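Tokens as discussed.
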């Protein structure tokens, strides 16, 4: 497919129905076909004119028509040739409609005759249709026709060939030429299409511009997008916006991206031609221009573009500063491979030369999974900062802190140190300004989130909750998606550890959805969401779904694998083995997991989890003595799940008093999984003591809590025959006395225990707000704590009062004199 550009007949003419339809529009009597050279304006109008039923008068404007009398005479002559006689500026025509084509309109720019032509065009003659074609508007006041809806405009965007019109043309050629008709023709016919295209554009587009515009084009061709502000930085030209808009109107090779924005884009082939011209005429200017572009993009926080042009400038020390001050946050985004690729291009000999380039070397070691070398580069970078003033080093100090926190400390599992390093980073960021630390908001989100992770594993759950929420919110505002995904996963883990499966699932699912939407499901930061889903599915009794979530976690790109994430994946596998009634394999895997833990691992909450898992395995293997040896009845700091584990051990050993004390405490805790397990164990204990009513009430409460929270796993931890018998007896008794299962009321004995268990000081603070109309969010604001903490305490209050909802808790608290 080719189209002759500018002359009728120099190639095959391709019918263009969509453009003919615009030219035929009966509602508009004037059509402007305006574009730069080679867009096929003349060819289009000529091929269309052949389809017209009436006569077509054609005037190609030349230099001699710039005078009013000369132009008027030329117009009269071409109209007379089709039977229209103009006398004293009046014309009558009673035959078919006449079309007047005035081509090469740009010749009238600034000419005296342009005003007369404008008056002629604006006269409404029902029998006359006017088509104006050229590279500009020749100063004609066409705005009135536009406002009246009487002007059809066909520009380069419409003249460009689309895929249907360019059938048979390779997709790459159509993309490169952007449908430019002459470009397509040259691609098909020229011996050297690239050279032919370049020569044409430089002579017909660039050389025809005024000297100021030519220099503007040559200085602004290297960025993929250009705006007036960037152009000013490259040219010193203060009228960049007007120049770009002029080029857009007059050439068709400059377009606004997108429409209405400040950005413009040069046609691919024009940009290539300009860049080659600069590199040929001013080779020394190329690097300098790329350097200016990079620094402008850096000021605008457009990091990817800043890095790309700094690389093209070959300014490696500046790249080091740019990465340390801004681009390091790309590690926590979908652009991390772009960052690593840039660093790989830095000459190896330069990497040890500055603190910033040493940090870059550390990032390279991180990408390669070389932890020992990574630590060495961080140490060297800090040493190279010696003597640098505080103002000049705050950004890289924080960058080193947070890189070490994420890549070394957290990866190795030293959670107390993670808290210390992120705390130091937050202290450094507190007085910092954005001009000192351009990525202050991103750094803060990363530090808050990682401090929350450290606090969770150091078993400071309330503070962990606050920092994880703050980190997630800050990450969302700063656009650091991987930090947000990871924070969601850890908030889910926190809720799971507190026994709230619904909240755990909600956070983890949100993390998975965000990762999927951003195509980041396989990133290490998404692994925690997958693992939490697996843990929740185990407690819901859905083994297949749990295994699927575990596989998603194991298939993330962890290189090297994060210690705690790997150990948590092993704990999920152990839970699945216990669900499959294979405690021997579970114990073997638990022992292997402990043996493989690195020496640097320091995570008290993980230690407790491993010990609790060991207790679950021991109970499954009928070794209650081993559990008692691990825990002691007098340990007041036992968490609900640990109370249940030890209570079940005492139950198996026949120590009913000790078992009941622990199980009742756990049964009235906010940990729903522990509570369900405790009430099942209390049902078995009451049955062993011969208390049928208490046994039925306990099983009723266990089933009610389980139904309300979607919990099934605990029922599998006991003898299935005994659990089934108790459940069957409960249903029989309920049918005998004509009542359905009371989901919220315990027996009188257990209710008394619930009502007399003391509330903590924080729970009493929150209890005071329950009779009000304040929401959980508003209570949190009043107390200066997170909403998640308020909800956890509210669940605890409900359990201790034996209430199912807020109003019921208020009533019971008043009966007990607590309000």
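Sequence:
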């Amino acid at each position: 497919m080719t189209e002759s550009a500018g002359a009728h007949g120099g190639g095959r003419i391709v019918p263009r129905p969509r453009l003919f339809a615009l030219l035929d529009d009966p509602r508009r009597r004037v059509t402007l076909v305006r574009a730069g050279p080679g867009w096929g304006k003349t060819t289009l109008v000529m091929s269309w004119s052949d389809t017209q039923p009436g006569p077509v008068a054609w005037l190609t404007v030349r230099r001699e028509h710039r005078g009013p009398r000369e132009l008027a005479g030329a117009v009269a002559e071409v109209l007379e040739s089709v039977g229209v006689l103009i006398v004293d500026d009046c014309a009558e025509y009673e035959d078919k409609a006449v079309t007047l084509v005035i081509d090469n309109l740009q010749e009238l720019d600034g000419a005296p005759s342009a005003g007369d032509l404008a008056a002629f065009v604006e006269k409404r003659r029902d029998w006359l249709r006017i088509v104006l074609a050229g590279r500009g508007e020749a100063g004609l006041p066409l705005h009135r026709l536009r406002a009246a809806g009487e002007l059809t405009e066909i520009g380069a965007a419409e003249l460009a060939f689309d895929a249907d019109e360019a059938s048979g043309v390779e997709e790459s050629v159509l993309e490169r030429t952007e449908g430019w008709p002459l470009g397509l023709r040259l691609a098909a016919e020229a011996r050297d299409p690239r050279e032919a295209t370049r020569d044409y554009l430089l002579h017909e587009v660039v050389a025809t511009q005024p000297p100021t515009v030519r220099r503007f084009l040559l200085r602004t061709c290297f960025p993929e997008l250009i705006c007036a502000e960037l152009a000013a930085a490259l040219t010193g030209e203060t009228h960049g916006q007007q120049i770009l808009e002029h080029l857009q109107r007059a050439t068709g090779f400059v377009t606004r991206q997108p429409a209405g924005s400040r950005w413009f884009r040069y046609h691919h082939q024009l940009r290539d031609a300009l860049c080659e011209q600069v590199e040929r005429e001013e080779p020394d200017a190329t690097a300098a221009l790329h350097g200016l572009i990079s620094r402008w993009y850096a000021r605008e926080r457009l990091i990817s573009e800043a890095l790309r042009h700094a690389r093209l400038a070959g300014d490696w020390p500046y790249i080091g500063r740019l990465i340390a001050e801004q681009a390091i946050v790309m590690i926590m985004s979908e652009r991390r491979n772009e960052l690593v690729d840039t660093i790989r291009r830095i000459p190896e000999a330069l990497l040890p030369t500055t603190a910033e380039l040493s940090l870059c070397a550390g990032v390279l070691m991180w990408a390669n999974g070389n932890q020992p070398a990574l630590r060495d580069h961080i140490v060297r970078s800090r040493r190279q900062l010696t003597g640098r003033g505080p103002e000049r080093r705050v950004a890289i100090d924080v960058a080193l802190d947070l890189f070490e926190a994420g890549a070394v400390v957290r990866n190795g599992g030293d959670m107390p140190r993670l808290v210390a390093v992120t705390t130091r980073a937050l202290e450094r960021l507190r007085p910092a300004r954005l001009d000192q630390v351009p990525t202050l908001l991103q750094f803060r989100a990363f530090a808050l989130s990682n401090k929350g992770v450290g606090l969770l594993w150091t078993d400071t759950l309330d503070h962990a909750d606050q920092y994880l929420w703050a980190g997630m919110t800050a990450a969302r505002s700063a656009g650091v998606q991987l930090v947000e995904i990871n924070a969601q996963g850890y908030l889910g883990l926190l809720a799971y550890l507190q026994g709230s499966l619904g909240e755990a699932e909600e956070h983890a699912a949100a993390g998975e959805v965000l990762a999927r939407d951003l195509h980041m499901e396989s990133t290490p930061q998404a692994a925690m969401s997958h693992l939490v889903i697996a843990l929740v599915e185990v407690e819901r009794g859905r083994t297949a779904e749990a295994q699927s979530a575990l596989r998603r976690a194991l298939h993330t790109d962890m290189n090297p694998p994060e210690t705690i994430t790997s150990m948590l994946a092993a704990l999920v596998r152990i839970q699945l083995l216990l669900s499959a009634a294979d405690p021997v394999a579970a114990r073997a895997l638990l022992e292997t997991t402990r043996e493989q833990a690195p020496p640097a691992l320091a995570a008290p909450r993980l230690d407790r989890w491993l010990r609790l898992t060991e207790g679950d395995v021991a109970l499954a293997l009928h070794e209650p003595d081993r559990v008692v040896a691990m825990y002691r009845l007098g340990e007041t700091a036992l968490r609900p799940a640990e109370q249940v584990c030890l209570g079940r051990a005492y139950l198996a050993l026949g120590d009913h008093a000790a078992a009941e004390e622990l199980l009742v405490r756990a049964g009235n805790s906010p940990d729903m999984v522990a509570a369900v397990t405790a009430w099942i164990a209390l049902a078995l204990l009451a049955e062993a003591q011969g208390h049928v009513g208490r046994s039925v009430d306990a099983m009723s409460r266990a089933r009610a809590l389980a139904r309300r929270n979607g919990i099934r796993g605990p029922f599998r931890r006991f003898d299935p025959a005994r659990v089934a018998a108790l459940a069957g007896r409960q249903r029989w008794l309920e049918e005998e006395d004509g009542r359905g299962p009371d989901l919220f009321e315990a027996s009188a004995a257990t209710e008394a225990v619930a009502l007399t268990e003391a509330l903590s000081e924080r729970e009493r603070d929150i209890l005071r707000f329950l009779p009000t109309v304040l929401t959980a969010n508003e209570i949190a604001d009043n107390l200066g704590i997170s909403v998640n903490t308020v909800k956890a305490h509210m669940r605890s209050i409900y359990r201790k009062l034996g209430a199912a909802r807020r109003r019921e808790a208020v009533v019971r608290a008043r009966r007990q004199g607590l309000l």
